[in-house]
Amino acid sequence: MAEPMRSRLLVLPWEAAIWVLVLFALLLGRLLSDAFLTPDNLGNLAANLSEIALMALPMTLVVIAAEIDLSVASTLGMTSSLLGLLWSMHVAMPLCILAALAAGALAGLMNGLLVTGLALPSLAVTIGTLALYRGLAYALLGDHAVADFPAFYTNLGFGNLPGTAIPNPMLPFALLAAFVAVLLHATTFGRRLYAIGANETAARFSGIRVVRSKPLLFVFSGLVSGLAGVIYTFRFSSARADNAVGFELPVVAAVLLGGVSIFGGSGSVIGVVAAVFLIGVLQNALTLVDISNDVLTIVTGSLLILSVLIPNLLRQFHNRPRGG
For position 301, what pLDDT does the model report? Predict the structure, then answer.
């Protein structure tokens, strides 16, 4: 009797478990503070995780393909600095935004070419470009901040969708999440990504053009990081070189906690979306009771470790020899 019960528990989708944890986190937040479930606080919660949520979507594709991009937060900072610099030089705002998006895409292209063209490990490459892009951000703005942006654009950053408490940045996240979900789960390109992540050598022999596919993922990651940089700049009405420092950790944590295997070849968008909200809810609830940022970092790091440890323990438990 115990064996069938164990089998049923093991096939419980990881994504479903994460959504259950989201519900428990919401309950915890309500118990910790009466202000937690108010519309204003929930709107603030959603706004604060918007850039992390955006960057987690292309990161999902990258990790499924058995790669990683640790430069996303630095790309956000670099594109924010570029936007601020151009605006301070009296460049029209639409051109500033286009330049920031283009810079993000070029940063991603550089990552992709180094990984595929020179066959370098993405971990090492993006650790290097993490420092490089952050250094470029400081080269563009130094320690200065640009803050005099037009009200129309800053309202897009911290305003709400008409008639709701939903922050405006949640709209591009929802649209992008739908796009990535369809791309990953309903197209040939998505199936090829799973094949590349599961066994790149076999994927090559089956005719999948790995050298073409992987750079596209990094370009997409850079482009979305650029978009996150634009949103972050308008949301805080401030372009600074140190914007989003440390955001790499919650982005990677959300992807892995959402069920995407660090070894590639498995994962889903719905699990990553659930993990993004789980991290956001926990951080918001703890902030309401004056928990320090250091503790929040410890919580996020612990979730990252658990997201790698638990699936591997379950896999070992499932594959162990059975007596009898």
Answer: 83
Question: For residue range 257-269, what is the model confidence (pLDDT) as tens digits?
Answer: 998 998 999 999 9
Looking at residue 75, its amino acid is T
* Burial class of 160 by CB neighbour count within 10 A (0 to 12, 13 to 18, 19+): middle
Q: Which stretches of the chain score pLDDT less than 50?
A: 1-12, 324
- Cβ atoms of 220 and 111 within 8 Å: the answer is no
DSSP assignment, residue 246?
T
pLDDT tens digits, residue range 57-113?
999 999 999 999 999 999 999 999 999 999 999 999 999 999 999 999 999 999 999
CB 255 within 8 A of CB 60: yes
With beta carbons less than 8 A apart as the criterion, state whether 116 and 213 touch.
no
Tell me the C-alpha distance between 49 and 310, whole Å.
24
DSSP string for residues in 284-314? HHHHHTT--HHHHHHHHHHHHHHHHHHHHHH
Q: Of 118, 16, 75, which Cα lies nearest the Cα of 228?
A: 75
Q: Which CATH architecture has domain 14-314?
A: Orthogonal Bundle (1.10)
Task: Decide: 229 and 157 in contact? Cβ < 8 Å.
Answer: no
Q: Which residues lie below 8 Å from residue 240, measured CB to CB, with a gap of 6+?
A: 77, 80, 81, 84, 141, 145
Give the pTM: 0.91
